[in-house]
TrEMBL record:
Enzyme class: transferase
Binding site for Mg(2+): S176, D292, T296
Region (Disordered), start-end ranges: 1-22
Keywords: FAD, Flavoprotein, Magnesium, Metal-binding, Transferase
Name under which the protein is recorded: FAD:protein FMN transferase
InterPro entries in alphabetical order: ApbE (IPR024932), ApbE-like_sf (IPR003374)
Organism: Blastopirellula marina
Entry EC no(s): 2.7.1.180
Protein backbone atom coordinates (compact mmCIF):
# COMPACT_ATOMS: atom_id res chain seq x y z
CA UNK A 1 0.00 0.00 0.00
CA UNK A 2 2.40 2.68 1.20
CA UNK A 3 5.81 2.81 -0.43
CA UNK A 4 8.12 4.80 1.85
CA UNK A 5 11.81 5.09 0.94
CA UNK A 6 12.88 3.97 4.39
CA UNK A 7 11.17 3.27 7.69
CA UNK A 8 12.08 2.88 11.33
CA UNK A 9 9.69 0.28 12.74
CA UNK A 10 8.80 0.95 16.35
CA UNK A 11 6.38 -0.91 18.63
CA UNK A 12 5.34 0.78 21.88
CA UNK A 13 8.49 2.90 21.97
CA UNK A 14 9.33 6.54 21.63
CA UNK A 15 11.98 7.08 18.97
CA UNK A 16 14.96 9.29 19.53
CA UNK A 17 16.16 11.75 16.89
CA UNK A 18 17.96 9.89 14.11
CA UNK A 19 20.97 11.52 12.50
CA UNK A 20 20.54 9.85 9.14
CA UNK A 21 16.86 10.80 8.95
CA UNK A 22 17.62 14.35 9.95
CA UNK A 23 20.29 14.64 7.29
CA UNK A 24 17.88 13.45 4.62
CA UNK A 25 15.63 16.48 5.10
CA UNK A 26 12.74 14.35 6.25
CA UNK A 27 13.08 11.70 3.54
CA UNK A 28 12.83 8.90 6.09
CA UNK A 29 9.70 7.78 7.88
CA UNK A 30 9.08 6.74 11.44
CA UNK A 31 6.54 3.95 11.71
CA UNK A 32 4.64 2.99 14.87
CA UNK A 33 2.50 -0.15 14.81
CA UNK A 34 -0.10 -1.84 16.98
CA UNK A 35 -2.10 -5.04 16.51
CA UNK A 36 -5.82 -4.39 16.97
CA UNK A 37 -9.19 -5.17 15.37
CA UNK A 38 -7.75 -8.33 13.76
CA UNK A 39 -5.22 -6.32 11.75
CA UNK A 40 -2.20 -4.09 12.14
CA UNK A 41 -2.70 -0.36 12.63
CA UNK A 42 0.26 1.79 11.62
CA UNK A 43 1.12 5.47 11.90
CA UNK A 44 3.72 7.00 9.58
CA UNK A 45 5.44 10.24 10.58
CA UNK A 46 8.04 12.34 8.82
CA UNK A 47 11.35 11.82 10.62
CA UNK A 48 12.37 15.46 10.43
CA UNK A 49 11.76 16.75 13.93
CA UNK A 50 12.89 16.02 17.49
CA UNK A 51 10.68 12.94 17.77
CA UNK A 52 8.07 14.30 20.18
CA UNK A 53 5.37 13.75 17.54
CA UNK A 54 5.61 10.03 18.28
CA UNK A 55 3.97 10.66 21.68
CA UNK A 56 0.81 11.64 19.83
CA UNK A 57 1.04 8.56 17.63
CA UNK A 58 1.36 6.28 20.67
CA UNK A 59 -1.68 7.96 22.24
CA UNK A 60 -3.61 7.45 19.00
CA UNK A 61 -2.77 3.74 18.94
CA UNK A 62 -3.76 3.47 22.60
CA UNK A 63 -7.17 4.79 21.60
CA UNK A 64 -7.53 2.06 18.97
CA UNK A 65 -7.34 -0.57 21.71
CA UNK A 66 -10.05 1.22 23.67
CA UNK A 67 -12.26 1.46 20.61
CA UNK A 68 -11.84 -2.24 19.88
CA UNK A 69 -13.33 -3.01 23.27
CA UNK A 70 -16.27 -0.80 22.39
CA UNK A 71 -16.86 -1.86 18.77
CA UNK A 72 -15.82 -5.50 18.41
CA UNK A 73 -18.46 -8.02 17.38
CA UNK A 74 -16.04 -10.75 18.49
CA UNK A 75 -16.05 -9.77 22.17
CA UNK A 76 -19.18 -10.66 24.10
CA UNK A 77 -18.38 -7.96 26.66
CA UNK A 78 -17.90 -5.17 24.10
CA UNK A 79 -20.29 -2.25 24.28
CA UNK A 80 -21.79 -3.04 20.87
CA UNK A 81 -22.52 -6.65 21.85
CA UNK A 82 -23.92 -5.64 25.23
CA UNK A 83 -26.23 -3.18 23.50
CA UNK A 84 -27.57 -5.88 21.18
CA UNK A 85 -28.06 -8.23 24.13
CA UNK A 86 -30.43 -5.89 25.97
CA UNK A 87 -31.79 -3.22 23.59
CA UNK A 88 -34.63 -5.46 22.39
CA UNK A 89 -36.00 -5.38 25.96
CA UNK A 90 -35.84 -1.63 26.56
CA UNK A 91 -34.13 1.52 25.24
CA UNK A 92 -30.44 1.50 26.23
CA UNK A 93 -28.22 4.61 26.60
CA UNK A 94 -25.36 4.83 24.10
CA UNK A 95 -22.03 6.65 24.46
CA UNK A 96 -22.28 9.91 22.51
CA UNK A 97 -19.61 9.24 19.85
CA UNK A 98 -20.89 5.71 19.28
CA UNK A 99 -24.40 7.12 18.94
CA UNK A 100 -23.16 9.44 16.19
CA UNK A 101 -21.56 6.47 14.43
CA UNK A 102 -24.83 4.56 14.59
CA UNK A 103 -26.65 7.58 13.17
CA UNK A 104 -24.19 7.70 10.27
CA UNK A 105 -24.66 3.97 9.71
CA UNK A 106 -28.43 4.35 9.45
CA UNK A 107 -28.05 7.29 7.08
CA UNK A 108 -25.76 5.19 4.87
CA UNK A 109 -28.29 2.37 4.97
CA UNK A 110 -30.93 4.73 3.61
CA UNK A 111 -28.67 6.33 1.00
CA UNK A 112 -27.49 2.95 -0.33
CA UNK A 113 -31.00 1.45 -0.27
CA UNK A 114 -29.89 -1.25 2.12
CA UNK A 115 -26.56 -2.18 0.54
CA UNK A 116 -24.83 -1.02 3.74
CA UNK A 117 -26.34 -2.62 6.80
CA UNK A 118 -24.82 -3.00 10.27
CA UNK A 119 -27.34 -5.72 11.18
CA UNK A 120 -25.93 -8.20 8.64
CA UNK A 121 -24.03 -10.17 11.31
CA UNK A 122 -26.37 -13.20 11.16
CA UNK A 123 -25.58 -13.55 7.45
CA UNK A 124 -21.85 -13.52 8.14
CA UNK A 125 -22.37 -16.31 10.64
CA UNK A 126 -24.66 -18.49 8.54
CA UNK A 127 -22.17 -18.34 5.65
CA UNK A 128 -19.33 -19.30 8.03
CA UNK A 129 -17.30 -16.12 7.46
CA UNK A 130 -17.57 -15.04 11.09
CA UNK A 131 -15.46 -18.06 12.06
CA UNK A 132 -13.45 -17.97 8.80
CA UNK A 133 -14.86 -21.34 7.79
CA UNK A 134 -16.90 -20.61 4.70
CA UNK A 135 -19.89 -22.80 3.90
CA UNK A 136 -23.03 -22.66 1.76
CA UNK A 137 -25.98 -22.46 4.16
CA UNK A 138 -29.24 -24.35 3.92
CA UNK A 139 -32.01 -22.21 2.47
CA UNK A 140 -33.97 -22.53 5.73
CA UNK A 141 -31.00 -21.29 7.75
CA UNK A 142 -30.48 -18.41 5.33
CA UNK A 143 -34.13 -17.43 5.66
CA UNK A 144 -33.86 -17.45 9.45
CA UNK A 145 -30.80 -15.20 9.26
CA UNK A 146 -32.50 -12.81 6.83
CA UNK A 147 -35.37 -12.37 9.28
CA UNK A 148 -32.91 -10.74 11.67
CA UNK A 149 -31.33 -8.43 9.08
CA UNK A 150 -32.44 -4.88 8.34
CA UNK A 151 -31.46 -1.56 9.87
CA UNK A 152 -35.16 -0.68 9.98
CA UNK A 153 -35.12 -2.82 13.14
CA UNK A 154 -32.91 -0.20 14.84
CA UNK A 155 -34.48 2.81 16.52
CA UNK A 156 -32.33 5.68 17.72
CA UNK A 157 -33.71 8.34 20.04
CA UNK A 158 -31.56 11.42 19.44
CA UNK A 159 -33.05 13.30 22.39
CA UNK A 160 -32.18 10.66 24.96
CA UNK A 161 -29.34 9.10 22.93
CA UNK A 162 -30.79 5.64 23.38
CA UNK A 163 -30.96 2.56 21.15
CA UNK A 164 -33.86 0.15 20.77
CA UNK A 165 -33.97 -3.05 18.71
CA UNK A 166 -37.19 -4.46 17.30
CA UNK A 167 -36.60 -8.08 18.32
CA UNK A 168 -34.26 -10.48 20.04
CA UNK A 169 -31.44 -11.76 17.86
CA UNK A 170 -30.84 -8.54 15.92
CA UNK A 171 -27.08 -7.94 15.94
CA UNK A 172 -24.91 -4.87 15.58
CA UNK A 173 -21.76 -5.41 13.55
CA UNK A 174 -19.64 -2.38 12.69
CA UNK A 175 -17.01 -4.34 10.78
CA UNK A 176 -17.58 -2.35 7.58
CA UNK A 177 -17.14 1.04 9.23
CA UNK A 178 -15.32 0.47 12.52
CA UNK A 179 -11.73 0.63 11.27
CA UNK A 180 -12.41 3.83 9.38
CA UNK A 181 -14.06 5.33 12.44
CA UNK A 182 -11.03 4.36 14.51
CA UNK A 183 -8.75 6.17 12.03
CA UNK A 184 -10.88 9.31 12.27
CA UNK A 185 -10.60 9.22 16.05
CA UNK A 186 -6.83 8.67 15.79
CA UNK A 187 -6.59 11.75 13.60
CA UNK A 188 -8.27 13.80 16.32
CA UNK A 189 -5.67 12.65 18.83
CA UNK A 190 -2.79 13.45 16.49
CA UNK A 191 -4.10 16.90 15.61
CA UNK A 192 -4.68 17.67 19.30
CA UNK A 193 -1.00 16.77 19.82
CA UNK A 194 -0.06 19.32 17.10
CA UNK A 195 0.97 16.59 14.66
CA UNK A 196 0.06 17.90 11.22
CA UNK A 197 1.72 15.47 8.79
CA UNK A 198 0.89 11.77 9.08
CA UNK A 199 -0.56 8.73 7.38
CA UNK A 200 -2.42 6.09 9.34
CA UNK A 201 -3.98 2.84 8.18
CA UNK A 202 -5.83 -0.13 9.57
CA UNK A 203 -4.94 -3.36 7.80
CA UNK A 204 -4.04 -1.38 4.63
CA UNK A 205 -7.68 -1.44 3.45
CA UNK A 206 -8.54 1.74 5.39
CA UNK A 207 -6.17 4.71 5.04
CA UNK A 208 -6.25 8.31 6.26
CA UNK A 209 -3.67 10.96 5.38
CA UNK A 210 -3.18 14.48 6.73
CA UNK A 211 -0.68 17.08 5.62
CA UNK A 212 2.19 16.12 3.36
CA UNK A 213 4.97 13.58 3.01
CA UNK A 214 8.14 15.63 3.49
CA UNK A 215 10.52 13.77 1.18
CA UNK A 216 11.71 16.65 -0.97
CA UNK A 217 9.38 15.81 -3.86
CA UNK A 218 6.89 18.22 -5.37
CA UNK A 219 3.90 15.95 -4.80
CA UNK A 220 1.12 17.12 -2.54
CA UNK A 221 0.00 14.80 0.21
CA UNK A 222 0.86 11.11 0.64
CA UNK A 223 1.17 8.52 -2.11
CA UNK A 224 -1.03 5.47 -1.61
CA UNK A 225 -1.19 2.46 -3.90
CA UNK A 226 -4.53 1.02 -5.05
CA UNK A 227 -4.23 -2.77 -5.02
CA UNK A 228 -5.04 -5.04 -7.93
CA UNK A 229 -8.00 -7.24 -6.91
CA UNK A 230 -6.52 -10.43 -8.39
CA UNK A 231 -2.78 -9.88 -8.08
CA UNK A 232 -1.53 -8.75 -4.67
CA UNK A 233 1.89 -8.01 -6.15
CA UNK A 234 0.46 -5.41 -8.53
CA UNK A 235 -1.31 -2.07 -8.32
CA UNK A 236 -4.13 -0.64 -10.37
CA UNK A 237 -2.47 2.75 -9.81
CA UNK A 238 -1.73 5.30 -7.10
CA UNK A 239 -3.47 8.31 -5.62
CA UNK A 240 -2.24 11.20 -3.51
CA UNK A 241 -4.20 11.78 -0.33
CA UNK A 242 -4.20 14.99 1.68
CA UNK A 243 -6.65 15.59 4.54
CA UNK A 244 -8.85 12.76 3.29
CA UNK A 245 -9.23 9.00 3.41
CA UNK A 246 -9.34 5.94 1.19
CA UNK A 247 -11.13 2.65 1.68
CA UNK A 248 -10.92 -0.53 -0.40
CA UNK A 249 -13.26 -3.53 -0.40
CA UNK A 250 -12.81 -6.83 -2.18
CA UNK A 251 -13.38 -10.53 -1.69
CA UNK A 252 -10.67 -12.12 -3.81
CA UNK A 253 -8.65 -13.36 -0.83
CA UNK A 254 -11.47 -14.03 1.65
CA UNK A 255 -13.54 -16.58 -0.18
CA UNK A 256 -14.19 -20.30 -0.51
CA UNK A 257 -15.07 -22.67 -3.33
CA UNK A 258 -18.05 -25.03 -3.33
CA UNK A 259 -18.84 -27.32 -6.25
CA UNK A 260 -16.59 -25.26 -8.49
CA UNK A 261 -18.16 -21.90 -7.58
CA UNK A 262 -16.41 -19.13 -5.66
CA UNK A 263 -18.18 -17.40 -2.75
CA UNK A 264 -16.74 -14.15 -1.39
CA UNK A 265 -17.13 -12.78 2.13
CA UNK A 266 -18.79 -9.47 1.16
CA UNK A 267 -22.50 -10.22 1.43
CA UNK A 268 -25.42 -8.29 -0.01
CA UNK A 269 -27.73 -7.78 2.99
CA UNK A 270 -30.67 -7.34 0.64
CA UNK A 271 -30.39 -10.85 -0.81
CA UNK A 272 -28.38 -12.61 1.87
CA UNK A 273 -25.89 -13.85 -0.71
CA UNK A 274 -22.30 -12.91 -1.69
CA UNK A 275 -22.06 -9.79 -3.85
CA UNK A 276 -20.72 -10.53 -7.33
CA UNK A 277 -21.04 -7.34 -9.40
CA UNK A 278 -17.44 -6.14 -9.05
CA UNK A 279 -14.00 -7.46 -8.11
CA UNK A 280 -13.09 -4.52 -5.89
CA UNK A 281 -14.16 -1.02 -4.98
CA UNK A 282 -11.99 1.86 -3.81
CA UNK A 283 -13.42 5.06 -2.37
CA UNK A 284 -11.84 8.43 -1.58
CA UNK A 285 -13.88 10.42 0.93
CA UNK A 286 -13.48 13.26 3.45
CA UNK A 287 -13.51 10.83 6.41
CA UNK A 288 -12.21 7.32 6.89
CA UNK A 289 -15.53 6.08 8.30
CA UNK A 290 -17.32 7.22 5.15
CA UNK A 291 -14.63 5.79 2.85
CA UNK A 292 -14.70 2.48 4.71
CA UNK A 293 -18.48 2.13 4.65
CA UNK A 294 -18.97 3.29 1.06
CA UNK A 295 -16.24 0.96 -0.20
CA UNK A 296 -18.30 -1.97 1.08
CA UNK A 297 -21.58 -0.51 -0.14
CA UNK A 298 -20.23 0.23 -3.62
CA UNK A 299 -18.86 -3.30 -3.86
CA UNK A 300 -22.35 -4.58 -3.12
CA UNK A 301 -24.18 -2.10 -5.35
CA UNK A 302 -22.07 -2.29 -8.50
CA UNK A 303 -21.63 0.45 -11.12
CA UNK A 304 -25.20 1.61 -11.79
CA UNK A 305 -26.39 1.85 -8.19
CA UNK A 306 -23.10 3.42 -7.13
CA UNK A 307 -23.41 6.16 -9.72
CA UNK A 308 -26.90 6.99 -8.46
CA UNK A 309 -25.77 6.90 -4.82
CA UNK A 310 -22.96 9.38 -5.48
CA UNK A 311 -25.55 12.05 -6.21
CA UNK A 312 -25.78 12.30 -2.40
CA UNK A 313 -21.98 12.39 -2.01
CA UNK A 314 -20.49 14.90 -4.49
CA UNK A 315 -17.12 14.97 -2.66
CA UNK A 316 -16.63 11.20 -2.97
CA UNK A 317 -14.70 9.46 -5.78
CA UNK A 318 -15.00 5.76 -6.60
CA UNK A 319 -12.98 3.22 -8.54
CA UNK A 320 -14.71 -0.05 -9.41
CA UNK A 321 -12.76 -2.94 -10.90
CA UNK A 322 -14.76 -5.50 -12.88
CA UNK A 323 -13.91 -8.57 -14.90
CA UNK A 324 -12.59 -7.78 -18.38
CA UNK A 325 -13.75 -9.19 -21.67
CA UNK A 326 -10.65 -11.37 -21.97
CA UNK A 327 -10.15 -14.16 -19.50
CA UNK A 328 -7.89 -13.07 -16.65
CA UNK A 329 -8.25 -9.36 -17.42
CA UNK A 330 -9.92 -6.55 -15.51
CA UNK A 331 -11.48 -3.23 -16.43
CA UNK A 332 -11.89 -0.07 -14.38
CA UNK A 333 -14.89 2.20 -13.90
CA UNK A 334 -14.13 5.63 -12.42
CA UNK A 335 -16.85 7.76 -10.85
CA UNK A 336 -16.74 11.20 -9.31
CA UNK A 337 -13.26 12.69 -9.76
CA UNK A 338 -11.43 9.37 -9.67
CA UNK A 339 -10.24 9.70 -13.27
CA UNK A 340 -8.31 12.83 -12.19
CA UNK A 341 -7.07 11.23 -8.97
CA UNK A 342 -5.78 7.84 -10.13
CA UNK A 343 -2.33 7.99 -11.72
CA UNK A 344 0.11 5.47 -13.17
CA UNK A 345 -2.63 2.98 -14.04
CA UNK A 346 -1.10 -0.39 -14.85
CA UNK A 347 -2.16 -2.93 -17.45
CA UNK A 348 -5.63 -4.34 -16.90
CA UNK A 349 -4.44 -7.92 -17.45
CA UNK A 350 -4.14 -10.04 -14.33
CA UNK A 351 -2.01 -12.68 -16.05
Amino acid sequence: MVSPPKEESIEETRPEPDASAEGASGAYLIQLARQAMACQFEVYLNASGPGSEADGAVAALDLVNELEQQLSAYRADSEICQLAATAYLRPVPVESRLFQLLELSLQLHRDTHGAFDITAGPLTKVWGFFDREGKVPLESDLADAMALVGSNQIELNSEDQTLSLAREGVELNLGSIGKGYALDRCQEVLLDANVEDFLIHGGTSSVLAHGIRRDGSARDGWEVGVPHPLRPDRRIGTVHLKNEALGTSGAAFQAFFHQGKKYGHVLDPRTGRPATKVLSSTVIAPTAALADALATACYVMGPDETETCLENYPDVSVLLVIEGKRRGSVETIMLGEMSQRLIGTTSTSSE
